[in-house]
Amino acid sequence: MMGTIYLLHFEPAYKHAQHYLGYTERDVEDRLQDHQHGNGARLTQVASGAGVKLWVVRTWDNKTRDDERRLKNHNHEPRLCPICNPDGWERRGVL
Ligand SMILES: [Zn+2]
After folding, report:
1. Rounded to two decimals, what is the model's pTM?
2. Distance from the alpha carbon of residue 69 to the mean position of ligand 1, in angstroms
3. Nearest-angstrom CA–CA distance, 71 and 14
4. Most-buried pick from 35, 73, 86, 87 (CB within 10 A)?
5. 12: CA distance to ligand 1 center in Å?
């Protein structure tokens, strides 16, 4: 089963967190709605509850959960984010 990996950018940052990397086999916009309504990960639930705006800033299509895990292990969310790293993100070929 293939899905989409997506990167959420938090505005403003919630405590020390400014990103959430997720994976869905459904529509990313639907998944974003889940996050915004507190039905996603714990982190996005508390951030959203605190009034933080969640933006989908990047997606990777035709990926698997293993790809998501691999990307998460890199722990490079700020570098992958076009808002936090406008100059370098396109050149980063992590996946
Ligand atoms: Zn960012």
Report:
1. 0.89
2. 19
3. 21
4. 35
5. 10
